[in-house]
Amino acid sequence: MKEVKLYKKLKNSKVQCFACAHRCIIAPGKRGICGVRENRNGILYSLVYGKAIALHVDPIEKKPLFHFFPGTKAFSVATVGCNMRCLNCQNSDISQMPREQGKIEGQDVSPEKLVQLAVEYQCRIISYTYTEPTIFWDYAYDTAQLACKKGIKNTFVTNGYLSEEAIREIAPYLDGANVDLKSFSDKTYQSICGARLQPVLDSICLMKKLGIWVEVTTLLIPGINDSEEELTKIASFIHECDPGIPWHISRFYPTYKMLDRPATPLEAIQKARKIGLGIGLRYVYTGNVPGEEGESTFCYNCGARLIARWGFSVMSNRIVDGKCPECGAKIDGIW
């Protein structure tokens, strides 16, 4: 256990957590919505600090981050817990463990050890991923500071439900983020995720404003968020924030508590990509559909293919000094 940084003490030994947008008020002996931050005698503790449930070496493309040091390796880490309860969660066994099983598991791995492992495995990046990094913010924050001293970059794969304080505090050490924009409907967020839409939109804009490289992912769920109207709203929001933000449109497969819907038709993924490009987004990708044209990066100015991909593998990269070799257009990203 470790006392967390982002909270304040209230009357009657209650506390208010500032890590995420829920801003939970927690009574003594109780935990926040995430299930891993507990009030003990008026002090808020993280129950997952230094307790890694997953450690893997991944291609950065798996996050997915396509415009952030493509072709490099990311040392990925997660703890149990989440501040959402998405009915279609692909990692529910660990994200919902504290709620559904009443357990907190993980091996003891200090921030220092995480950085050491990243160096040993020759990873240029540490990625806080699989579950929601906001709920192990203190663990990620301390690790990110150490990683920066070693020249290692830090990325969040996040649902975007952070507080403004959490984003601003970690911004000097957070280089990139893929934010999951699940829907453009507050009703959908409430019913399927147990959260709200606006804080996610605010996080995307604030991260971009603070100089964090941002990419956005939307999992396309048949009958939930795949209407032309909603996809147009998502694409328009991203465009308004920055047309250079890459948008990844991923295919849904039945899982967890959402087994009643079919996998997303390929045609729906392709249609969504057309909508995004039609709105004026420079880079729209068809996620987890290997072999599609939408895996590649094209120059928004002249149309030249710049990065050819197959799945999570970079087959070729023609970007030179961050520019298209054909027309000289600056290609958005951290190369």
Task: Give the structure's gist in a few sentences.
26% of the residues lie in helices and 23% in strands. It has 9 helices and 19 strands.
Class computed from helices, strands and strand pairing: alpha/beta
Total beta strands: 19
Tell me about the largest β-sheet: 8 strands, mixed
Mean pLDDT: 97
Low-pLDDT runs: none
Figure out the total of helices.
9
**What integer value in Å does the Rg equal?**
20 Å
Termini Cα gap: 38 Å
Strand sequence of the main sheet, in spatial order? 8-9-11-12-13-14-15-16
Report what the structure shows.
With 335 residues, the protein is α/β, with parallel strands linked by helices. It contains 9 helices and 19 strands. The protein has an 8-stranded mixed β-sheet. A 3-stranded antiparallel β-sheet has the order 1-6-5, with no helix packed on it.
Summary keywords:
9 helices, alpha/beta, three-stranded antiparallel beta sheet, 335 residues, eight-stranded mixed beta sheet, 19 strands
Write the layout of secondary structure elements.
Layout: E1 2-3, E2 7-9, E3 15-17, E4 25-26, E5 37-40, E6 43-46, E7 51-52, E8 54-59, E9 73-78, H1 92-95, H2 97-101, E10 107-108, H3 111-120, E11 125-128, H4 137-149, E12 153-158, H5 164-170, E13 176-180, H6 186-193, H7 198-209, E14 213-220, H8 228-241, E15 247-251, H9 266-279, E16 284-286, E17 297-298, E18 305-310, E19 313-317
Parallel strand pairs: 9-11, 11-12, 12-13, 13-14, 14-15, 15-16
Antiparallel strand pairs: 1-6, 2-3, 3-4, 5-6, 7-10, 8-9, 17-18, 18-19
Helix pairs in contact: 3-4, 8-9
